Amino acid sequence: MNAAYLGALRMTTNRSVSRHRLKAWSVVAFQATLDFLLPRTCVCCDAALPQSDHRVLCTLCIGRLARLPAPQCPRCGHPRSPGACRWCEMLPPFVRAVRSVCWVPGGPAGEIVHKLKYSGWTALAEPMAEQMARLNFPVDVTEERDLLVPVPLARARARERGYNQSELLARLLGARWGVPVQEALVRRRATETQTRLTPGDRLRNVAGAFATVLEGRELAGRHVVLVDDVVTTAATLNACAKALHTGGARIISYVTFGRARAAGDTP
Asked: In terms of pTM, does the model score above 0.85?
């Protein structure tokens, strides 16, 4: 190998290294410019997020979620109070366990749920599902759960919104748990929004409103986990669970991101 060839090789190598350095510098400069012109901010608190960070929530807002305190009822996951668990009294006997991440409304959790449901922020389903996936269920639920079913939206509401937030959560949760997801329920009829109804009105509003689209053998013996964004009195989830149980499911559990405080719960 002569000196002229070695010299040419060094020059080619140097040019290649220079091009790579220039490209890397250009990427950094572009990223910095983008951060300046179009800063990424947290959906809840508007805190700045790095452009390379694809999350939509900052760690501070996640840390500020008002999580359900311990000790909790081993069945329904509600904070324990003296005497019999009042929250469990709302559940049918074929419901095995319920878990929720945090209290709603109020604080970052209320903002997160509202923006997912009403402002089109579907990217919020990712951090919500991440928190839901970490919930501590009884061992038998973890071992037996073999199907996730989202609570269905009314057709008119689904067309208006363009998506079902419960399905988004279920899909992301299923990927984390390694459990299949199926839209096994439909609404037989339109129902009023539950937001402003009394507990008794909620029960009447959703009674018989759901039906399963699966055949009996597809549900027979299965432990189904119903997925929703928020549980208040569990009227909707209970109505869905009844339809699944009638359709052949052996047992049902619930998982939600938010849970409304019951009377007597600490604010």
From this structure: no
